[in-house]
Design goal:
heterodimer; A: 11 helices; B: 375 residues; Outer membrane efflux proteins (OEP)
């Protein structure tokens, strides 16, 4: 197996195709543009959206089937009632519409038994109607009670109608689920590229400083002021830093490939990712309750639970309406499913509310951390400034000044990262409110 | 029962009890290849996949053999003619797809197994090296212990300094024990993986890792090979073919032509597949370069760890001199030695990680450039 792999690599090395060099396009995005484009090109989303008309057709057919069954059932009830209770003649009702028949049924109920009518009905039902309703419900079981006929032939079709509607609502919710996943994926990759950009920039700044220090050390080494080990140690730090920058560059490339994939771009397209409107000061406008309410309203998981809950509740009400009993396996199953979903909804809401609360708290803490990092940076700058003055007076060693310089740079990096963490937490908070997404 | 009989039966029971409590297994020697063969042979899924692949291949060959259209003059009103035509025209393509899926699953499973065995095999040697290094450090501390006791007795060091040393000494011993324990657990894991008793003795013979010079890999050529041969594209193209042929058939038969909705659904499906194929091509190219970059990153991680090791080694050498001249304490020296040991282990771990990342890259290349065909 390994040889085969080496062969493939070897082959590709030998092939060295003289293909024309491809020029990568440069594409500029803000986060919102990137999310919109990724949603637009997502194949799963397109497939799901294009399947909606078919699902709609399914709902239409299922509802039509259910309404047909209900109509037949209504007719059946009329005939049955007439057969059981009427004292009138059948001919009177023969040409009436279904609604008219229903109205007449009410009147019929008030009348007493009429042997002539019953005889006619018996004859009619035996000859024609029995066959007709047997065909309606596909049964030859005239002994079934009205409820049994409903249970056997009508409820099923009503459930199919309910299921089709449930499937439709789920499909629409799934569109939002995919949109949410794409939004999270794009946001993470987008912010990931920006994070790596920041990291590369700060490491490069550090490298510039390290190189400067190295030059000074070399001069000092030539004058015998520092040891060979000091020189080596500094060079070692530079080499390490260079490698770390190369690694960061490669990681950035990989994150860009992932982002390009989500955006439907060629993997090698160059990306320029713009920061959110920098000048705007982020404000936590909404109250905690408003944030939580909006997040809960937009959360697809909760929506999914609610869709299922609504289905079971409708099923449950049909069951109670026609069964008239509150026990039995089906009753227990329906009650269990309703309780389960209500419980899931409560827990999901609590989790989301807790996430919203946590995000707001984290945002405040991160803002405070920026202040701390700013103070630490200012202090390091002051120390360096004093250190340089003392160095000129011969009070501190060169290596101490170098340490102070590196410390300033480190504190600057920490400050930049803290500012970036605040920006990211603001994006996270916005996504919670707008899409009910937590990540 | 005579005394002799009693003695014999007691001896047998004792032998049985001892035998069951302390099983003695013959030591098996494995190199990387023989361990891999053993893992392949003992894996039930692999056996099943081989049988299934052969069966799907035979089914496809059979379907292809009868896949000559017998019904050229179609009766456009005859549903049976459509069904016959569908069977003849579509079945070979569907069978081919089933075979392709199975053959690819087998290839992936083989690669997964190979990867797992390599991971176990070289992790074992890595841990063996770690245990040796931890033992060496413990011996180093053990050697110093006697001298420290004397120093304490003659008042060269305080009780606190001695206690601090003892703490480091204990940590060195604990580090060695932990490492040894982890190594034993790894042996049991390997035994289970190759379907042997966990406590069986295992004699692994180290094998050099095949070096791959990533700088010479021509990604453009591999990219072209992927587009030409990748199973992931082939299987989607077969899906496309199935739907296209079905659409052609349905268009010819009046019954279906009248049901415009069915043809529309097929049109949508065809468009969706075309778009997914082009998406897949893009994502495969991205995956190739991502995996390649991951392998390069892993190489660079070794260099970073090497630099760190070099620094730790030189620091320790200097600290050794300083200690001998009484400039630093034994605690400082042992700390320095520990850094040096840790950085050595970090290199080995980075090397293992790089090897496995390259394997993963090679597996990806193999799985996506190997054309699955039937001779």
């Amino acid at each position: 197996m390994l040889n085969k792999k080496v062969m493939v690599i070897g082959l590709s090395i030998c092939m060295l195709l003289a293909s024309a060099p491809t020029f990568a396009a440069t594409k500029v995005y803000r986060l919102d543009d990137a999310i919109n484009q990724a949603i637009e090109v997502n194949a799963d989303l397109r497939a799901l959206e294009s399947s909606i008309p078919q699902i709609e057709e399914g709902v239409r057919q299922a509802n039509f089937g259910a309404s047909q069954q209900q109509l037949l059932y209504k007719k059946y009830k009329v005939y049955r009632a007439m057969y059981n209770d009427s004292e009138d003649t059948w001919d009177k009702y023969q040409d009436l519409s279904e609604n008219e028949l229903s109205d007449e049924l009410v009147k019929l109920g008030k009348k007493m038994s009429n042997p002539a009518f019953l005889s006619k009905m018996e004859e009619y039902l035996e000859d024609v109607e029995y066959i007709q309703y047997a065909l309606m419900f596909g049964t030859d079981e005239p002994d079934l009670t009205e409820r049994e006929v409903y249970q056997k032939y009508v409820r099923g079709s009503e459930l199919i109608g309910l299921q089709a509607e449930n499937e439709m609502e789920k499909a629409l919710n799934n569109i939002d689920v995919i949109k949410g996943n794409v939004t999270v994926g794009v946001t993470q990759a987008f912010l990931g590229v920006q994070d790596l950009d920041v990291a590369i920039k700060t490491q490069n700044d550090l490298l510039i400083l390290r190189n400067k220090i190295q030059n000074e050390l070399e001069a000092m080494y030539n004058e015998g002021l520092v040891s060979e080990f000091d020189l080596y140690s500094s060079q070692n730090a530079i080499e390490t830093l260079k490698l770390q920058i190369e690694i960061l560059e490669l990681q950035k490339q990989n994150t860009e490939y992932a982002l390009n994939n989500l955006l439907g771009n060629d993997y090698s397209d160059r990306l320029v990712l713009l920061a959110p409107n920098e000048s705007e000061e982020y404000e936590v406008v909404l109250s905690l309750q408003e944030r939580a309410l909006s997040a809960v309203g937009n959360n697809t998981q909760i929506k999914g639970y609610k869709i299922d809950l609504s289905y079971y509740e409708k099923d449950f009400s049909l069951y109670k309406e026609f069964e008239g009993i509150e026990f039995g396996n089906e009753y227990d199953d329906l009650t269990y499913n309703i309780n389960r979903l209500e419980d899931s909804i409560h827990k999901a809401i609590w989790n989301l509310e807790s996430n919203v609360l946590h995000a707001v708290g984290t945002h405040q803490a991160l803002k405070k951390e920026v202040e701390d990092k700013q103070l630490a940076y200012d202090l390091a700058v002051t120390k360096l400034s004093e250190g340089v003055s003392q160095y000129k007076l011969g009070l501190v060693k060169t290596s101490d000044v170098h340490s102070m310089q590196i410390d300033v740079q480190s504190k600057k990096m920490a400050l930049d990262q803290a500012i970036r963490a605040v920006e990211k937490s603001e994006i996270k908070m916005d996504m919670q409110v707008e899409y009910g997404i937590t990540y | 029962m005579s005394k002799m009989k009693k003695f014999i039966s007691v001896s047998i029971i004792a032998a049985l009890v001892i035998g069951s409590t302390f099983p003695v297994y013959a030591s098996e020697s494995y190199g990387l290849t023989s361990l891999m063969n053993k893992a392949m042979d003992s894996n039930v899924d692999m056996k099943l996949l081989k049988i299934q692949t052969d069966r799907e291949k035979a089914d496809y060959i059979a379907a292809r053999a009868i896949g000559i259209s017998l019904v050229d003059d179609v009766d456009e009103d005859d549903a049976q003619t459509y069904t016959d035509k569908q069977n003849i025209d579509l079945t070979p393509i569907k069978e081919k797809k089933v075979y392709l899926d199975k053959a690819y699953e087998k290839l992936q499973k083989e690669n997964d197994l190979e990867y797992q065995v390599k991971n176990l095999f070289y992790t074992y040697f890595n841990m063996l090296e770690d245990t040796r290094s931890k033992q060496e450090y413990y011996t180093f501390m053990e050697d110093k212990k006697e001298a420290e006791v004397i120093k304490l007795e003659v008042g060269q060091i305080t009780q606190l300094q001695y206690d601090t040393f003892l703490q480091s000494y204990d940590q060195a011993f604990l580090g060695y024990l932990k490492s040894k324990n982890a190594l034993d657990a790894k042996v049991r894991e390997i035994n289970i993986y190759i379907d042997q008793e966990p406590s069986a003795q295992l004699d692994l013979i180290n094998a050099p890792k095949t070096p791959i010079d990533l700088s010479k890999v021509d990604l453009t050529s591999i990219e072209a090979l992927i587009i030409e041969n990748s199973y992931q594209l082939d299987t989607m193209e077969l899906d496309l073919e199935i739907n296209t042929v079905d659409k052609q058939l349905k268009s010819r038969f009046k019954g279906f032509a009248e049901k415009a909705i069915e043809l529309e659904i097929l049109d949508d499906k065809i468009l969706e597949l075309e778009s997914k194929i082009s998406d897949k091509e893009r994502s495969l190219k991205g995956d190739l370069y991502t995996k390649y970059n991951e392998a390069i990153i892993a190489e660079k991680e070794i260099e970073v760890k090497q630099l760190s090791y070099d620094l730790a080694k030189r620091t320790f050498d200097i600290d050794q001199l300083k200690f001998e001249n009484g400039l630093i304490s034994l605690i400082d020296l042992s700390e320095s030695r520990k850094n040096f040991e840790d950085s050595y282990y970090a290199i080995n771990t980075a090397k293992l990680s790089q090897y496995l990342t390259v394997q993963s890259f090679l597996d990806f290349v193999e799985e996506n450039t190997t054309k699955i065909t039937i001779e």
